[in-house]
What does this fold into?
Amino acid sequence: MLDTFEILTTSGVVLWSKSYSAISPAIINSLITNVFIEERTLPGAGIADDISAANNPPYKYDQHTLKWTTVKELGLIFVAVYRSLLHLSWIDKLVDNIKTIFVDLYGDQLKKPHTTIVECHFDEYFDQQVRELEKTALNQDTRVAEASALEEAPISVSANLRDEPPPLPGILSRGQSKNTFKDLTSNESTPIATPDTSRPSTPASHILTGKGGPGGKGSRRARKAANTPSAYASSGEESQRKGRPKSSGPKKGRKWDAEGMADEDSDTPLDYSTPADGVNLGDDEGKGRPGNVEGVDHATWGSKTGKGQFVLKDLDDQVNSILATAGAKKESSTASTGIVGSSINAIGGLFRNVVGGKTLTKEDLDKAMKGMEDHLLRKNVAREAAIRLCEGVERELIGVKTGNFESVQARIQTAMEASLQKILTPTSSLDLLREIDAVTSPSALSLKKKRPYVISIVGVNGVGKSTNLSKICFFLLQNKYKVLVVACDTFRSGAVEQLAVHVRNLKELSAREGGEVELYQKGYGKDAANVAKDSVSFAAQEGFDVVLIDTAGRRHNDQRLMSSLDKFAKFANPDKILMVGEALVGTDSVAQARNFNTAFGAGRSLDGFIISKCDTVGDMVGTLVSMVHATNVPVLFVGVGQHYSDLRNLSVKWAVQKLLSSNQ
Amino acid sequence: MSTIAEWAHALMSPSPVALIVGILLVLSIPLFLHSFVFRASGLTTLPSILLIGPSGSGKTSLLTLFERGTSAAQTHTSQAPISAECHLPVGTLASSDRYRSVNDPTNLRHKKFLLVDTPGHGKLRHHALASITNPQNLKGIIFVVDAATLSAGDEGLRHTADYLHDILLVLQKRTESKNKAVKALKEIPILIAANKGDLFTALPASLVKSSLEMEISKVRSSRSKGLLDSGIGMEDEGDRDEWLGEVGSTEFRFKQMEEFDVVVEVSGGNVAGG
Ligand SMILES: Nc1nc2c(ncn2[C@@H]2O[C@H](COP(=O)(O)OP(=O)(O)OP(=O)(O)O)[C@@H](O)[C@H]2O)c(=O)[nH]1
Ligand SMILES: [Mg+2]
It folds into this structure.
């Protein structure tokens, strides 16, 4: 069963929620940070609008699965949380339907400025949907598994069921049926007769509204069937409205006005109609429907609703008509508006193109986005990253109105700027010195032991690992740290000597500054992981502040060498694993970053990039974006020259400006 | 010759499309001029108070508490700023009312103000910065911190101090800003709201103050020792003169901000729970 359903705004306020079993707020928070803010699943996904929950990738967190959808215009997020063990085939439909109903009922309130309050009495609508969708799911399930469990069924149930096969009571878990029962009894506390006659509810029908439960698990047909009800529900509803125009007319009028809402809420859900009436009602409804298979199906289902008797017919009708109009709207919007209309639209569009105030459509954006994509490619952004960035921006912009005197082009430019800025900005500030201090001289109160801070540098061959390690070392020496440089490239001949030269230079340079640096090396052929481990304990004994470990360069597609990184990370247990990437690299950057990021085993990833040789590429700093984009790992430093002092913090503003500048 | 005649002909009998466009243009120009000119002059907005702080500190909760009066709404991580219209309780005197007579009937009315919430996530702090660098009738800032994560050596303390340091630095440098509205910000009171006082691990306000001051001293010195920015050559970023508070002081104190007309006050409390 569902754990929790929440409707919240992008500003973080929960507008409505229903909880069947309490879940930690961290679950939904992690959905928001990972999917919407940091866009770890796919960029732009969080802002994509009008995508059904089925098309959004389910988010899994700590034994829970989250299904979600958004309404960009109103800044709404709809989330359903349930245990990953369960297979709830109807959950997508539920999320979508709830979205439609909620927006229809409270859309106006949501547009009010300067308030976070939305008066909503949504419980009944939600319960109605859950009941209905569960029932359809159950129907499918029973038909699949009709052979079994007949003898277990209570007599009253089979009696009520007429020609429908009974549900599988064995499936219902105790907790679940208790849940329903609670809902029902709370409803019964406000019994008010409806226009239809009332009749007592039987315990059997309580069970009837029970859950599909795990019975649906693994059944292809059930899953498929649960995905189809959109078609048959709406067609059914339409015919129903046609069949009974008198009864639905006035009701429809009532439901649209805001005042009426309160009234309806007070005469809550009890349809106490007599069994006979229920059957009649069902039959009537059945007659109104087309005689195809789905129609028949729907008729029996309708009669059961008649006996289900917890649902006020009004509410059912209202919800169904909301869903039906929404469906119809979607269809009509795709239909063309005729020649006159379209030519006027075209003129208006051209006009608005100049003065702004135009609502952007995919067609408007397509050409301009292509231009933006080419621009990014020229800046050396990898194709994959460029495409996904543009897709993200496009999804964000569709349906957005341009501002006064703002052209489409300008709007895209600003959106891309914001998007790049968001990608490149790190989640938390990257203050290396302070992190080192926290480890090497922990506060007396925090009960942590003093230990050296370990940084290791990885990357493919020839990107400048040793050079950048020396630059970092120089920076640390300037700040008077005691640094141990470890040569873990036990593979390529000459690597250790090269590092030794760097260390000698650094010693000379730092002699008057007050820093201290030593080289730790064990020659060639040793296992790098062991050397690293030994060096860290050596550094701890000798009172070094920072350990800088240089590793062998390796191709990111060299399976054997890459797999040794896993052991290396476990043995050396570095505080920071930094990857050096070349600004020149181009398309390969995505694969490089991704493979290195996953090479350290579960639970460990890269902590930052150093992008080297930025001085040689001018404005074409696309590698920055490609690498961050592929991994969500921030850029810590950029290398801008040949000297030890040519290391810089990344200024996001600087990078974005270079990426968007068009002086070529 | 014939081309001229054609031209004249075309000019005299415009296509209906051109006609419509022309008429629309003529009619709309005054409208646009109007909106353009008057937008710049700025409507008088309500006085606003800004909520800033790291993620999860309770900003949105506080906002909903102020708005609803009785209890806060359930909240999750914010992605977008939001403002809510709130009232001071009847009888509260705003400092702008200092010179009103006690019997002034307006004193008996609710004083309205806008409370503006901003997302605290690292990637979304530009919203908060924009509200300071482009202020709309800004009267004060509430910096909300989670007092339960501020014990020494805690990640939370580091991140909170980082953020607070950056905000204070922006305020300190506001006189250098090109934006007139920023320069016009005279006094800015900052309330550091030590939230979640109901939790067992929460520090009292006095400790919150001292540990933040200590941590900001560290931020300040490590920033001054850090590497240069890659954007060092850019025009409006040149100066490295980014020392928060009194130059030459070893320890940062919130009092040092008073020199820049920024008054910092710390007080404890809790939005939810008990
Ligand atoms: N115990 C306790 N919890 C609180 C208090 N105030 C807020 N919380 C909880 O802290 C959590 C985060 O609160 P939010 O208001 O969403 O945090 P925020 O500052 O808006 O965070 P962002 O929107 O991510 O910047 C929520 O689960 C609140 O219920 C408090 O006084 N005591
Ligand atoms: Mg918030």
Q: What stands out?
A: Chain A is about 50% helix and 10% strand.
